[in-house]
Write a structure and sequence with these properties.
Layout: E1 8-9, E2 12-13, E3 15-16, E4 24-26, E5 31-36, H1 50-54, E6 64-70, E7 78-88, E8 91-96, E9 111-116, E10 125-127, E11 131-133, E12 138-144, E13 152-153, E14 161-162, E15 174-178, E16 186-192, E17 209-218, E18 227-229, H2 236-239, E19 243-250, H3 253-272, H4 276-286, E20 288-293, E21 300-307
Parallel strand pairs: 1-5, 4-6
Antiparallel strand pairs: 2-6, 3-13, 5-17, 6-16, 7-15, 7-17, 8-9, 10-11, 12-14, 12-16, 15-18, 19-21, 20-21
Helix pairs in contact: 3-4
Length: 312
């Protein structure tokens, strides 16, 4: 977008903590670039094997670059962040991590798929012999330090943002976060080359990259939870060929979500000859889990959308 960034932030940390010393201080209106590690914190690489998944040290998972102190920002303000640019690395990974994911009780063994893609053109990335996944870089974890003394785990999202894994917090998006501590103490990490809504297996295309943001402050503006505004359409890269959709229906949203994903895994196995674990990983990186109906009590409808363009 033609913005000149002050400099690139390389320093990372592994938990939200308002006592951390900021790596830099900036004024509202300035922009910074961040060097973001993959979600494994460098434990997985372009030559890793599935054995490395089983050896992951979870104290080093999901590092975030920062924190950054934004001058003049106080509790009760809103930090407005504009996603200015992404410079992807060209490689990434998707894994089934035992004990993690929507169907963790059904997929108990580690699995790993390594991705290689063109970081300049972002043409769809090859997924085995089955298809190609359209790419859309975004920040999985982006947030501020909470007021409550830390440290706090990076894994769950919070009122002040964090590991929200919203695929539309991408290029051009404006994100608004409620500030709880002086200076906001902003950090970002967990960049993805692609992800479906829901990230059902627990990982996306986890990919290190550089990301640049502009920082602005809205003084004394009420905001209970994060909100964002996209620059344009959010699913045009997936919509061209339509979707196959499975559903789960029942009085429990989580069980219905599991049923809808399980049904898609079964469908991919029957129609595409895809092993269940591969179907599960594919669902996580490009399928969308949606609440289709939540008013017709006592049963709710969850739908899982898989874009057919993947198999073109």
């Amino acid at each position: 977008m033609g913005t000149i960034h002050r400099h690139t932030i390389h320093q990372s940390h592994y938990g939200w903590d308002n006592s951390l010393e900021p790596v830099t201080r900036i004024a509202p209106g300035e922009s910074l670039e961040f060097e973001v590690s993959d979600a494994s914190g460098g434990q997985l690489g372009a030559a890793s094997s599935v054995n490395d998944v089983a050896r992951l040290d979870f104290s080093r998972v999901n590092p975030v670059a920062g924190p950054v102190f934004v001058e003049g920002t106080e509790p009760g303000d809103v930090l407005k962040l504009t996603l200015l640019s992404f410079v992807p690395s060209g490689w990434g990974w998707t894994a089934n991590i035992p004990g993690f994911g929507l169907l963790a009780d059904e997929f108990k063994e580690p699995a790993l798929h390594l991705w290689h893609y063109d970081p300049r053109t972002l043409v769809p990335a090859v997924f085995g012999r089955w298809g190609r996944v359209p790419l859309k870089p975004f920040t999985g974890t982006i947030g501020l330090a909470p007021a409550e003394p830390g440290p706090h785990s990076i894994v769950p999202p919070r009122r002040v943002g964090g590991n929200m894994d919203v695929r539309d917090i991408a290029l051009g998006t404006e994100l608004y976060l409620p500030v709880e501590v002086a200076g906001a103490l902003f950090s970002v990490g967990d960049t993805h080359a692609a992800q479906g809504d829901g990230e059902v297996c627990g990982t996306a295309i986890e990919s290190p990259m550089r990301v640049a943001l502009r920082f602005d402050v809205l003084k004394r503006e009420p905001l209970a939870f994060p909100r964002f505004r996209t620059e344009g359409p959010v699913s045009r890269h997936l919509d061209a060929k339509g979707y196959d959709v499975t559903t789960g229906i029942g009085p429990d949203l989580m069980l219905a979500a599991r049923d809808s994903v399980r049904s898609m895994i079964d469908l991919l196995g029957r129609q595409r000859g895809m092993p269940a674990i591969d179907a599960y990983l594919l669902c996580s990186v490009c399928g969308d889990l949606r609440i289709s109906e939540i008013v017709d009590m006592p049963n709710w409808t969850i739908s899982f959308y898989l874009p057919r363009i993947v198999f073109d």
